[in-house]
Design a protein that fits this description.
It is built from 4 helices and 7 strands. With 148 residues, it is α+β, with helices and mostly antiparallel strands. A hairpin with a 5-residue loop joins β6 and β7.
């Protein structure tokens, strides 16, 4: 049962986290799991973004790495996105009540399918990623690594 308890705690931590994306220098959206942002949905529509994801490569399987290791992983993810011709912008996961000790950098990925996002999340050993569609509502997408 330990896995279920840990998953419940993780679920709560993910839901309390603020997912900040910066698609333009002077534009920031702060998103929460299962919460609608009308301005964000309008922005998605303006840029014809029908599906999207937020992914960090930081702290695989919720094991804290050094900042240098995490920055290296961020660069690896960036290269992977470039190689696959994705459009993306910076994102920042900000924990509520310091559920984890540092902000986690990552990327907001335009028009990525749920299946491709899961593949990337597993490649970077993430327990979950954030996925949404044109309604702008972020939802938590668990990988099978969360069951281990």
């Amino acid at each position: 049962m330990k896995t279920e308890i840990d998953r419940q705690k993780l679920d709560l931590a993910f839901k309390q986290t603020c997912y900040q994306i910066n698609p333009e220098t002077d534009l920031t959206f702060k998103l929460k799991i299962e919460k609608c942002s009308t301005d964000f949905a309008k922005w998605l529509d303006t840029y014809s973004i029908n599906k999207w994801g937020i992914l960090t490569p930081f702290n695989p399987k919720s094991r804290q790495l050094s900042l240098a290791e995490n920055q290296h992983r961020l660069e690896e993810l960036k290269q992977q996105l470039l190689e696959n011709n994705y459009t993306f912008c910076p994102s920042l996961n900000l924990s509520h009540n310091n559920s984890w000790p540092e902000e986690e950098e990552g990327f907001f990925i335009f028009n990525i399918s749920e299946s491709k996002l899961l593949i990337l999340a597993k490649k970077f050993q993430q327990l979950a990623a954030i996925y949404g569609q044109k309604d702008g509502i972020p939802r938590l997408l668990w990988t099978d690594l969360a069951l281990i």
